[in-house]
Design a protein that fits this description.
This protein has 449 residues and is α/β, with parallel strands linked by helices. Helix content is 40%, strand content 10%. The longest helix is centred in the last third of the chain and has 20 residues.
């Protein structure tokens, strides 16, 4: 795996880390351990969902994003605001003011990811109309959910929608439009205004071609630059293309609302998503055609890089959905051209992530698995996290793989200490053969006291 593919937005600030176990309990993929009183993040397991950032009381986890000065690398810069961006400002703030705010920060053009979502919805409807699809089809819009399936639910890879995300669609179309204006590909800079670290990682892993995205800037940093000046900016409604159909994707349920009628469901919050994926894996939701799944509670408006309270943000999104009800039609000619240009084709295929490879030799792997099960029987089964691993099973796996020791479990350590103490006590009671009867009696008197 190359260095770029290993990039993770979620990082650890060791100076702030106190070695508490809040993060290991909340991580949905058991990607965090505490060793030497400091958290450690397993890059193979991490899906950049941001739960550790949300949970850490010491603010020791953070998301690495790009600064606005990154725009200086390009001649023509395009902002790709997430639909969740619109929900950060006051309810009555016109969309044209928000988009103009991005232009005031140095961008030359704005292409709304919400518009990309509207365009993608047309292609999703086309895909769902096919007779032979694996039900339920799981949305590919949330990169944290996609990676969750790659890590924990590889059997559901065929259920994932084999189409680009709204961000991918928006970035490809924006680059094509800029190239039509006469700009060379290397002159064009595409920057996503992101609500979450998972999308930062998606940006960094984008291919070096039409689908390339050059950076991800957090909503919080953009919001801080605009909040005091946005009311004074002109309303540039002429650059707005999105409508209710794409704006609604910013909160849970908006994606299914933009599609044609069908048996759809929406789930948000990474742990609730896991619960639903388990049901799908068991074959209990085959009557559902489409499953919209988002890692953050409330959808993208609940991302850790957003500013507004997600419940207040939902009110703002609902208000915008009502206000901007006019949908700009998408011509069949444009759709056909985008299909030819592979705008809807995913640049990176889904792949299984092997996060627990016991051994390359099957026989040895089986032996290690049996040792894990045997050692697991010795553990208390409390999943307390005091050992630095999230669960007793995780500790058993770490011990057999040589990443931890048995006595990392405080209960096993206590048992060993008691055993040693008894051995020492028994040794202390033994009388050396060279001791006189008088010395032996004095020793007994001391013990009785």
């Amino acid at each position: 795996m190359n260095q770029e593919a290993r990039f993770h937005s979620v990082r650890l600030d060791e100076e702030k880390c106190k070695g508490c176990t809040h993060c290991i309990r909340k991580c949905p993929t058991e990607a965090i351990r505490v060793k030497g009183s400091k958290a450690q993040i397993d890059e193979e397991r991490c899906i950049d969902c941001g739960e550790c950032i949300r949970t850490c009381p010491n603010h020791a986890k953070y998301a690495r994003t790009d600064p606005l000065v990154a725009l200086e690398r390009f001649s023509y810069n395009i902002a790709l605001p997430a639909p969740a961006f619109y929900a950060q400002f006051r309810v009555n703030t016109p969309l044209g003011k928000m988009l103009n705010g991005l232009l005031s920060l140095g961008f030359d053009q704005v292409f709304e990811v919400a518009r990309g979502a509207e365009i993608l919805a047309e292609e999703i409807n086309r895909f769902l109309s096919q007779k032979k699809i694996t039900r339920p089809v799981i949305s590919s819009a949330c990169p944290a959910v996609v990676r969750l399936i790659e890590v924990k639910f590889p059997s559901l890879l065929d259920n994932l929608l084999p189409l680009e995300s709204p961000l991918g669609v928006a970035s490809k179309i924006a680059r094509l439009e800029a190239m039509r204006k006469g700009f060379a590909p290397e002159e064009i800079g595409l920057f996503f205004i992101t609500p979450c670290p998972a999308k930062v990682t998606e940006v960094r892993q984008s291919e070096q071609n039409l689908s390339r995205i050059d950076g991800a800037i957090s909503i919080s940093s953009v919001y801080a630059r605009l909040i005091n000046s946005i009311d004074q900016l002109p309303d540039r409604s002429d650059i707005q293309l999105s409508s209710w159909k794409g704006i609604g994707w910013g909160r849970s349920g908006g994606e299914q609302e933009s599609l044609c009628e069908g048996e759809y469901m929406a789930v948000d919050g990474i742990h609730q998503v896991i619960s639903v994926l388990e049901k799908i894996e068991l074959g209990e939701l085959k009557n559902v055609t489409y499953c919209e799944a988002q890692a953050c509670i409330g959808g993208c408006i609940g991302g850790v890089l957003a500013v507004q309270n997600p419940f207040i943000a939902k009110v703002s999104v609902n208000n915008l959905v009502k206000r901007y009800g006019t949908f700009h039609p998408i011509s069949q000619q444009d759709l056909d051209e985008w299909r030819i240009k592979q705008v809807f084709t995913r640049a990176r295929p889904y792949q299984v992530r092997e996060v627990l490879k016991l051994d390359s030799d099957f026989k040895k792997a089986l032996e290690k698995y049996q040792r894990i099960e045997k050692f697991l029987e010795e553990l208390p089964g409390l999943d307390c996290g005091a050992c630095g691993s999230p669960t007793c099973r995780a500790l058993a796996e770490d011990v057999i793989l040589g990443k931890a020791q048995e006595i990392d479990c405080p209960f096993l350590l206590r048992d060993q200490l008691l055993k040693k103490a008894r051995e020492i006590y028994e040794l202390a009671k033994r009388v050396p053969q060279t001791m006189s009867p008088k010395e032996e009696k004095e020793k007994e008197n001391v013990e009785s006291q």
